[in-house]
Amino acid sequence: MSAMSVLISVGAVLGKTNLLQLTLMALVEVTVFVTMMMIDRHYLNVDAHVSMMHIHVFATYFGLMVAWFLSRSLNERVEQEKTQTEKRSSLFTMLGTLFLWIFWPSFNSALLDSPIERKNAVFSTYYALAASTVTAISVSVLAHSQRKINMTHIHNAVLAGGVAVGASCHLIASPWLAMVLGFMAGLISIGGALCLPGYFNQVLGTHDTCGVHYTFGLPGLLGGITYILLIIYEVNWTTKSISRIDIQLFFGAGTLSLAMASGLIAGVLTGLVLSLKIFKAPPAAKHFDDQAFWEFPHLATGF
Fold first, then answer.
1. CB-hemisphere CA count at 13 Å for 100?
2. 167 with 216: CB under 8 angstroms?
3. What is the pLDDT of residue 47?
4. CB 36 within 8 Å of CB 53
5. DSSP-assigned letters across all residues of 203-217
6. Could you tell me if 186 and 153 are in contact, meaning their C-beta atoms sit under 8 angstroms apart?
7. CA 201, CA 188: separation in Å to the nearest integer?
């Protein structure tokens, strides 16, 4: 499950790195993430499920920091020309999106011990995914000038509900809360896809190739905050103890902050190392080109 952190972060740097850089990035990221989980378990007394669900926040900001160092020389014209999606690849990508959609409840419930909590997690995840899917398709159509569905939006936003409900899925006992989280995650994801590349990313000078910030990062923050609120509500309902609420708030906020801070710091250090000349990163003019790693028969001599 920790390997998923690499899959998320690679989406931010895809097309701007070579294989050696990706290998080193994967080794560093998994090591830091497992260390962070050990700190959560032994010092913050956080269960494995909640610590694992912060993987979305950690991996997103790790990848964004690495991408920030690798995107500083990126030409805007090259970026726009080479990152356009093609119809066949978008349709093929939907197979992967559907696969993730079906098996996301397994990921959200794998580390839960109680059968009741596991059942709540599975149902809550499906409710959130369904709500984010309907929201994503509806808002994507409304945002398009010709009232068409943007497949890039669908690839990202239909999974945002599963991310947002991950940390608190076992605490949700009624469908409406999971569906509200899915609805909010869908709105955040579509809004991020429409606004962040043109405004936020240009201000920061970074390039997020696959949009992991609004697919995993922002919905992950929403899920982390929701978990803190639900824990406070549960403690307040059962004990009425202010000190107990303060303790839960401290540990919940501390775990989420640790995930974000670890991702940012480790990403900065990794980005500094990967930007060194010894790794022979591809020049900006060669970003998003596949010919360096793949064979193209139609481009070979004689074709």
1. 20
2. no
3. 86
4. no
5. HHT---TT-HIIIII
6. no
7. 16
Burial string for 30-63 (b: 16+ CB within 10 Å, else e) reads eebbeebbeebeeeeebeebbbbbbbbbbbbbbb
User: Rounded to whole angstroms, how far apart are CA atoms 25 and 269?
Assistant: 10
pLDDT for residue 157: 82
Q: State the helix-helix crossing angle for 115-143 and 175-195, rounded to 10 degrees.
A: 40
* Integer CA distances (angstroms), 118 to 53, 93, 192, in order: 14, 29, 31
Q: How high is the mean pLDDT of the chain?
A: 84
DSSP letter at 290 equals: -
284-292: Cβ within 8 A, 24+ apart: 284/73, 284/74, 284/75, 284/78, 285/75, 285/78, 287/15, 287/16, 287/74, 287/78, 287/79, 287/82, 288/15, 288/16, 288/78, 288/79, 288/82, 288/83, 288/209, 289/15, 289/82, 292/18
Q: Residue written as tokens 């640790």?
A: 258
Q: What's phi and psi for 2, nearest 5 deg?
A: -65, -25
CB 241 within 8 A of CB 36: no
pTM assigned to the model: 0.88
